[in-house]
Specification:
The structure is a single chain. This protein is α/β, with parallel strands linked by helices. Among the domains are: 217 residues, Crotonobetainyl-coa:carnitine coa-transferase, domain 1 (Rossmann fold, 3-Layer(aba) Sandwich); 93 residues, formyl-coa transferase, domain 3. 35% of the residues lie in helices and 14% in strands. It contains 32 helices and 27 strands. Strands 14-13-20-19-18-15-16-17 form an eight-stranded mixed beta sheet, with helices on both faces. Strands 4-3-2-5-6-7-27 form a seven-stranded mixed beta sheet, with helices on both faces. A hairpin with a 3-residue loop joins strand 25 and strand 26. Helix 23 crosses helix 24.
Length: 818
Amino acid sequence: MIDTNVHLDTATAPLAGLTVVDLSTTVPGALATMFLADCGAEVLFVEPSGGSPLRELPGWPALGRGKRSVVLDLHSESGKDSVRGLLRSADIAVTTMRPATAARLGFTPDALAELNPALVSASITGWGSTGPFKDYKGYEGLVMAKLGILHGKRQTIPRPGPSFVPTPFATWGASQTAVHGILTALFERESSGLGQHVEADLVRGMATLDTWNWFAELVTLRWPDAFTPVTAFDDNGLPNGALIYPLLVTPTKDGYWMQFAQTAPRLFLALLTELGLDWMLTDPKWAGMPQLDDMALRIELWEMMLERASSRTLAEWQHVFDTNPDVSAEIFRSPTDALSHAQLHHDGRTVVFDDPELGPVVQPSTIVHNDGKALTPPRSAPRLGEYQAEIAKSTSVTIDGRSASEASSGLPLAGVTILEVGSMFAGPYGTTLLTDLGARVVKIEPIGGDLIRGLVPFPEAGGAKVMQGKESITIDMRTPEGLAVVHAWAAKSDVVLQTYRAGAAKRAGIDADTLRAINPNLVYLSAPGYGTDGPYGNRPAYAPSIGAASGLALTDVPDATEKTGSMEEIKATAIRLYAGGANLSAQADGISALAVASAILLGLYARRRGTPMGELTATMLASSTHALIDRNLDYQGKPQGWQADPQMYGYSALYRLYPASDGWIFLAAPQENEWTALVKAMQPFVDLDQDQRFDSAELRQENGEALAEVLTDAFATRGKDAWESDLTTLDVGCVAAAEHTSEWTLQSDEFFEAGYSTLAMSPVFDEHRRLAPVTTFSRSSTKAEGGCMAGEHTDSLLTEIGYDDATINSLRERAIIE
């Protein structure tokens, strides 16, 4: 852990010299501008006279760190004039207003571009600025309910129905896709001299986090008889999926819960051997294990593994982890406990800053590290209005007499080549996102292809999402000839991404020193699970184990680890914890992939503006702690923040799930200024205005259970779609909760026509619907391509670096390429 009170010089940070005007009022915007501040930008945080509501959050000391506060009233002409003055000399502006609000206040994209043609403006909304949902309230609970995330997490609770999800998955997705847009627009501005407007939203930000479920749903929609998708456990608590065994969730003898990470065949064998069950692999009764068709055998195997694993104490298991590199598990930690993880300490990714008002504040360091160090030192959040004098310093900027609307830029990353040496999802999907922006990605795959391609029992469905827009070469880079090909491509690339465990890149001959000796201008990013060295650097990392270690799982099932009694109770708890950390639509893989894209874009922009960086690192574990930065800080007097009720309906009577007559709705009207609209909307069904228990915000909080009972009775009288229609018409946050996965929702006609998905071509799926590019630009274009087959471009990629047909045939005959 780094303990420092020193304000080190940030002049050499990658975004030093840039000015950001932060008009955001919600966490997605605060996370985006925190990233920019962490990278050295000067962030002017505009607040109302009473202070931003973000100051009330437990994570404020991190969300506000390094920023400077300016108090201005956006509803007064003088306040808006002062903001316009700031914007005239700014490089970046960030807003979280709904489109109608931006228009009313005069901060539309066109108005901002006219004010400052060099400005990169970014808006983060709930639903986007176009389409049928653009005027819906942008609360995260509404987005996750309508998409189906709450339905997908239903096994985190024992009661029937969807479960509220406290982890801010959509918030994280929107914040990072906004960062992608900002950095890409800055990159393009270095050539054109012009800014532009970029947009990100919670819907598409949420949708990035899915691994392969999109294409599993596509197969079932198009070819319903091809295979039957199954959840890990059915709704009766019986084991369905084979992954529950290598990803075993178990208590220890002394009451700790652990998540194993043994997905690779050799790792699963190591776990079976440790449990004394390796004999099963040669017993005809268990043929095909862990893929078993017989339910009785599935249950028997599960119970045998649980019994043996839970017979050891944590100390006994820790000895195994210390002595056997092929067996690994993580304790389920709370978000705050996660910051004491040994790997985070080793990497300097947990820092302590002595805040002048709060005292020592424990928090994550910058999400990207440069040559093993944070980009900037920890800094305090601003006192309210402490930078007020800055509003007098604004000046006008003119760019070549042109307006930003006069020039289009094409694909903003056109000409950028990324060499990807990694597998699965957490790192590689980060580069997939950049193909939509025009980057060329050359993917190095082993003979037979990346493991992710075969994780769904339908050809290519497992890897289709992560392969979108890429060119694949299958090669044995353990051979000198194969490694020479990788080196040749590194020589003509702009970026190298590698995701190997500690030491593996050096052993493979693709470490930063080796490749930058070949190409000194490379942006080199290591994106391992844990780190490039350290106590956990050699351990395998999978989304469920990172979810356990970082606090993601326990955020969604906060009470689960309290029970370790009978076998039936253990199994019930294991199901809940598995659902908390291994859900395909919302997990650590997607969170980490977004951070990878942010890191690559940061490196590209820094290089373009003449401040190249060293070896960059973004790890799954560290990225996941950043997604929980609104709740994992530790300091004296830390406010409790919102807490979900024990039944996981929501945070309060005015922000929660309710059963309707034909399903469920999610109500989001937690603000004082939303009460009047809710009372009016509910007037035909219940007279809330006449109930003295609800006469003030304080009384409504004090009588929250009574208010929930009243609303429960009212909402049960009508269908969910009627409630959504009527309440949203009156600008009350309410949606029907989907009862299918979010990937099914996003491929539906309604969401396709709304622009959240688009058409692409694939060698397997032909024309199909895929997630639309998640960031949009006012001048630059994007594209949406389908996936590629393993080795589809091997010959053409070899030809491009000078290999002739005879040499290529020789490589193939010797099984160096496929």
